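Hello,

Our lab assistant flagged a job as stuck in the queue for most of the afternoon. It eventually completed. Since we weren't sure the result was trustworthy after the delay, we are filing this so someone can double-check. Below is the sequence as submitted and the structure that was eventually returned. Let us know if re-running is recommended.
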Amino acid sequence: MKEKQRHWLNTLISTWIIGLLLITAACSGGKANSSETSKDTIKVGVLASLTGALESYGKQTVEGFELGLDYATEGKREVAGKKIEFVVEDTETKPDVAVKKATKLLEEDEVDFLVGSSSSSDTLAVLPLAEEYEKVMVVEPAVADSITGENWNRYIFRTGRNSSQDAVAGAAAIAEKGVKIATLAQDNAYGREGVAAFKEGAEKLGAEIINEQYADAASTDFTANIQNIISSKPDYLFIVWAGSNAPWKQLKDMQVEDQGIKISTAAQDIASLKTMDALIGMEGFSIYYHTLPDNKVNDWLVEEHKKRNDGAIPDLFTAGGMSAAISIVEALKQAEGDTDIDTLIETMEGMEFETPKGPMKFRAEDHQALQALYAITLEKQDGIDHPVPVLVKELSMEETEPPVRNK
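-- returned structure --
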């Protein structure tokens, strides 16, 4: 009897153990399936200024990124059998907020790529996180040279142009031997690095920089700066500025051009162009305007943007956001969907891809995208509510190639 009881008890225990193992296996199987599902989705975290002084920049970038995904994947938002999703976070144009939001994207959303940001200061604050978490960060549209210069790390790739590329285009428009130039810029990384790069490019062409003025980035009164510039009697005033508080009206009110000083600057987004009536006839440069590039990607962007926005034309940062998205999709196509960081970096170094501005190429040394810029004049055209950049010459990616400035 005792033997039978012992046998029955052993059978019961064995059955219980087998059941427990089956349950555990089933649970483990469920986790494995969940893991496999997560690997079928590639996530991109987009950092942008959706509020504050650079709000229009951020919103354009996000819209352009979405358009770029649709263009590069033919509307499927899939590559190599994997879905692509993106999560957007507002940096508020505050570096500490940018770091907080980037950390959230990396830790909670577990993104495979970062994109952004609208501000160079925000972007510089986030760069170390890309290295810490070993994730590719595609910088768009921040332009400070130090992003792909002294603060660069191997995880950083930039589709946006940098200050030195702007400088080459700006210098090409006005600098030559014997020309005296004064500069006015925001007193921040964007402004100071922009002037330093312009000065280098202009002096190579024989021009002399005789006065450098810097104003608080939030300033709306430039009287002292402009008076100082007028007193130095330059041939040109070259301006590096971003944001809605540009000095154009005050330059007109103080009759700078009437005193023989020609103003030159970047023809940037449409909001900026709407404030530049005082600069009609100006010789300068453009990063993007929808009528300047002549290629099928830009044709698609203009047509599709009009469809989605009641006939409105795409703007500077829309094209930039689109370029960032195309670069990521192209990298994933070439890597066959592999998000291994070393594979991605190896794939993207030297990679060429088509954008609304034409071909771009990630330079292997610093991952800066080489790209075309445009020498232009500003003209008033009937039926258009802002001065229009008219092409004088397209400056190829070879002509605008900046110095390598990283370590």
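-- support follow-up --
The delay was a queue issue, not a problem with the job. The result is valid. The domain at 41-160+292-371 is CATH 3.40.50.2300 (Rossmann fold). The first helix runs from residue 2 to 39.
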